[in-house]
Amino acid sequence: MYLIKSAKPVLIDAGSSGDMPDLVKALSAQGLKLQEVSLAVLTHAHSDHAGLARKLQRAGIKLALGKGDVPMAQSGHNDDLKPTNLTAYLLKHLAIDPKFPSFTPDILVDDRLDLSPWGLKGHAQQMPGHTPGALVVHLDDGRSFVGDMFLGGYLGGRFSPSKAGEHYFHADAAQNLRNIQSLLKLPIKTFYLGHGGPVDRDSVMEAFGR
Ligand SMILES: [Zn+2]
User: Fold this and answer.
1) Over the stretch 57-99, which tens digit does the pLDDT of each residue have?
2) Structure confidence at residue 91 (pLDDT)
3) Distance 85 CA to ligand 1 centre (A)
4) Cys staple from 78: which of 98, 138, 168, 181, with CB 3.0 to 4.6 Å?
5) Are 149 and 129 contacting, i.e. CB atoms less than 8 angstroms apart?
6) In what order do the strands lie in the sheet with 10-12?
């Protein structure tokens, strides 16, 4: 989860269903109450990114989600995770709770969502790959929030968090890789990730550039 400060503060992602105490504490450290957050943009509807979405919505926060992930959000269950390696296979079967409180987003991101109504120079853009409705948030200052398009470091970012690498699961791994390569053509300086990171452009180029 990331907080983007503005006149109408925006959260990127909504953590797991048990993350409310940590979120409230983190917001309070920034001088904010939960109700002051205006919008949560979900990079996708996996349980560790959208688990808290329904509680946020009930607190009055609008939810934006890529159109392709609406069925997952409404089912309250991850799609069938397709492991990219052995660690991923073990994680899938031993560590990941695929269920979360179902929800219906307030704002659907079909192609692009301009974020200027929330006081931000930037936009969200749907880029299916990791999930059918995965989206990225680009800010004009060179920051991009790309969810689980790739990982930073190992074991969820506990080691070498600033080193870009392959994520554990993708609905469409080949399309996800094309997404990363198309992002490398944009003037992005820093990539903010769901697990590990942030990662600078050179590290992404080293891991995924051609
Ligand atoms: Zn994910």
Assistant:
1) 999 999 999 999 999 999 999 988 888 887 777 777 777 889 9
2) 76
3) 15
4) 98
5) yes
6) 2-4, 10-12, 39-42, 62-66, 107-109
Based on the structure, what is the number of domains in the chain? 1
Which residue bears the tokens 């109700």? Answer: 35
How many A from CA of 78 to the centre of ligand 1?
Answer: 9
Q: pLDDT class for 153, splitting at 50, 70, 90? A: confident
Burial annotation 6-31 (CB, 10 A radius, 16+ → b, else e):
eebbbbbbbbbbebbeebeeebeeee
List pLDDT tens digits, range 184-197.
Answer: 999 999 999 999 99
Give the predicted TM-score (pTM) of the model: 0.94
Tell me whether the omega of the peptide bond preceding residue 117 falls within 30 degrees of 0, making it cis.
no
Distance 79 CA to ligand 1 centre (A): 10
Residue with tokens 């053509």: 185
Residue 119: give the domain boundaries.
2-208
Rg of the chain (C-alpha set)? 16
Expressed in angstroms and rounded, the spacing between residue 44 Cα and the centre of ligand 1 is: 7
The answer to whether 200 and 119 have CB atoms below 8 angstroms apart is no
CATH number of domain containing 71: 3.60.15.10
pLDDT at 210: 72
Nearest-angstrom CA–CA distance, 42 and 47: 11
Element (H, E) at 25: helix 20-29
